[in-house]
Amino acid sequence: MKRIGLTTTVPVEVLFAAGYHPIDLNNLFITSKDYMKYIDIAERDGFPKSLCAWIKGIYGACIAHDIKEIVGVMEGDCSNTKALVEVLLLRGIKVYPYSFPHSHKQEDVKEEIDKFMNIFNVNLEEVENIRDRLNKIRYLAKEIDQLTYMDQKAKGFENHLYQVSLSDFGQDIDQYEEEMEKVIEKIRKRKANNKKIRLGYIGVPPMTADIYAFVENFDAHFVYNEVQREFAFPRAYEARSIFEQYYDYTYPYDIHFRIKELKKQIAERKLDAIIHYTQAFCYRAVEDIVIKKELDIPVLNVEGDQLNALDARTKLRIEAFLDMIKDAKDGAKWTC
């Protein structure tokens, strides 16, 4: 299979049908033991320090791993992707554009996916066959999610990892399916953790993945990962076509469409509070204003930059926030 890099989740069904091996450059970057080397590559090539670490990491991973083709999402994801694509083109990398239309009309979503299929010379039947195969694995991610918020056996980090990795299916469909089946079997045998505080994680997947283990020190755990869950397409089985599936995908569309699903999950999962992670120098940080106004449970905004571990100040803020949540559950009066 030919390798192709992704700047974010796209209709991978099309790429698999075309005989490609999709690689999410975000995952390649952040799971590396020496992830800073990718940021260094970007900064040596002229990327400013005052730019999102994810963009620099994606660029560095693409260059370091000699990725010759990528899909760049030009609308519906990072506002810096257009500039990233221009630099990659300069480096001789072939870029295929894809957009999640701002209009969020079904006919516009269909038009974009049709164009994507035409670019890669595949038809709808081929794509739907692949979608059926991938949805079987997505259903395993749904099981892990249920083991997190219903059975309270899966950890927040496991919930994060096995959903976010479905952007490229761990780079190997069959192997990843086998891995998930083994993980599910292992998790089912555990006792429920029964942490007192039920947290939701919203916003882009974190640079600081230790946040999941950190909150467990304070009788809390994450039972919801918003964007990671969307990467796993939990409602894919309900969609009658690939067009409906990507129309129903909340992440790339406007904040109010996301909030509808957020409110539903807050109620269903009985969340006590939310931690909203944003990345330094990212426009999505402004969405925190709307989120705090629209949601009726406490929300703490934490910001990450280049570190892959929480700093002392952020740890202190999270600890204080969780103390307030605990006091509120115990009946104390407080203000957020």
UniProtKB/TrEMBL annotation:
<keyword id="KW-0175">Coiled coil</keyword>
<keyword id="KW-0479">Metal-binding</keyword>
<comment type="similarity">
    <text>Belongs to the FldB/FldC dehydratase alpha/beta subunit family.</text>
</comment>
<dbReference type="GO" id="GO:0016836">
    <property type="term" value="F:hydro-lyase activity"/>
</dbReference>
<dbReference type="InterPro" id="IPR010327">
    <property type="entry name" value="FldB/FldC_alpha/beta"/>
</dbReference>
<feature type="coiled-coil region">
    <location>
        <begin position="166"/>
        <end position="193"/>
    </location>
</feature>
<dbReference type="GO" id="GO:0051536">
    <property type="term" value="F:iron-sulfur cluster binding"/>
</dbReference>
<keyword id="KW-0411">Iron-sulfur</keyword>
<protein>
    <submittedName>
        <fullName>Benzoyl-CoA reductase/2-hydroxyglutaryl-CoA dehydratase subunit BcrC/BadD/HgdB</fullName>
    </submittedName>
</protein>
<keyword id="KW-0408">Iron</keyword>
<dbReference type="Pfam" id="PF06050">
    <property type="entry name" value="HGD-D"/>
</dbReference>
